[in-house]
Amino acid sequence: MDETNARPGVIVDAPELDPLRLEDRVDGPAAAVMMSAGIGIFVLGLFTVLSEASVAIHDFLGDLEFGRGVGPLAGKTLLASAGFLASWVVLGMTMRHKEVDLRRWFWIAFALGAIGAVLMFPPVFQAFTVE
Amino acid sequence: MFELSNREFWTVVHGLVLGTIFLLLFGGGLAGLWSLRAGLLTTEGVQERMRRLTVGMWAMAATAWATVITGTWIVYPWYRAELSVVGDEDFAGCAGAILPNATCSPRDFLKSDVTGDTASWHNFGMEWKEHIAWAAPFLVTAVAFIVTYYGPRIIKRPWLRTATIVMLVGGFGAAVIGGLYGAFLNKIAPIA
């Protein structure tokens, strides 16, 4: 598989696609959704720790349960989902026509997601618990 | 015959029905993404594969969202209800219990250690599951969008294909942690 000069290391020849006459697409929208997933996971991890570290934040997150008995998990997941969706809309709009370094965006998103996942690991967030 | 209580019904929908659909879709999705390599498919095969993969990925994303939403907003409140507090005694309602009951929710039951060393099932298992499972819909939705946006062009981008598979496997891993702990927790402290 020969790489083209357009994006060294990224694009390879695929003759079976030639009959489809596909126009190339910019990477901005994909970078946006990758970053949004990382942001969503990071926000959830962050609020998981903050809920343990602060009674005020714990109570605020619990207030977002709308009387359903979910507790602070309601606020954590609502804010994380809002972070995911809002960042996707904002980044998607601003990057929809942009060519970007997708690898760089992926690894930043990966790092955010990994940090979020670590913050959600019980021994980690429980280390911040205040009575 | 085959009677289920409301709680049993939603527990089955959340864990068994949606969870099984998610697992099945993951298998198909991973195989589909894996085979998007230059030289492996005909032009007609690429077109057929992409339609199936796109529908499958969005179905997987919808299933992931439905699973975490039913789990968090319907099933979880039954699990975490504080039923056993009597005066200063946090778990008085669980005294002598061999399973959760009307005065001892599953969380109360596990934390009370009334049948042995069960508190870690809540303190580690449930605490991890209830959070990490929410990574699945974020990651799988991103994968569904990427598959839709690029379509067959993914074949010309091996690095993007690998990154997409990493995200899909990450979402699956999060769901597996949620599913496995959910199955164990519902065995030890069933919601009924």
Your description of this structure?
The complex is a heterodimer of chains A (131) and B (192). Chain A is an all-alpha fold. Chain A has one domain (25-128). In chain A, 62% of the residues lie in helices and 0% in strands. Chain A has five helices and no strands. In chain A, α1 (28-53) runs parallel beside α4. The N and C termini of chain A lie far apart (60 Å). Chain B has 192 residues and is mainly α. Chain B has one domain. In chain B, 70% of the residues lie in helices and 0% in strands. Chain B has helices at residues 6-34, 43-80, 106-112, 119-132, 135-150, 158-188. The longest helix of chain B has 38 residues, at 43-80. Chain B is elongated and about 70 Å long.
Strand content of chain B: under 5%
Tell me the number of helical segments of chain B per DSSP (H or I, 4 or more residues long): 6
Number of helices of chain A: 5
Overall pLDDT metric of chain B: 95
- Biggest chain contact: A-B, 49 and 46 residues
Terminal Cα span of chain B: 17 Å
| Terminal CA distance of chain A | 60 Å
Q: What is the SS-derived class of chain B?
A: mainly alpha
Shape of chain B: elongated
Helix content of chain B: over 70%
- Determine the strand fraction of chain A and express it as a percent band: under 5%
Give the uncertain stretches of chain B in residue-range form: none
Radius of gyration of chain A: 20 Å
Keywords:
heterodimer; A: 131 residues; mainly alpha; 5 helices; disordered N terminus; B: 192 residues; 6 helices; 70% helix
Question: What is shown here, in short?
Answer:
Chain A is mainly α and 131 residues long.
Helices and strands, with pairings:
The complex is a heterodimer of chains A (131) and B (192).
Chain A: H1 28-53, H2 55-63, H3 72-95, H4 102-119, H5 122-125
Helix pairs in contact in A: 1-2, 1-3, 1-4, 2-3
Chain B: H1 6-34, H2 43-80, H3 106-112, H4 119-132, H5 135-150, H6 158-188
Helix pairs in contact in B: 1-2, 1-6, 2-5, 3-4, 4-6, 5-6
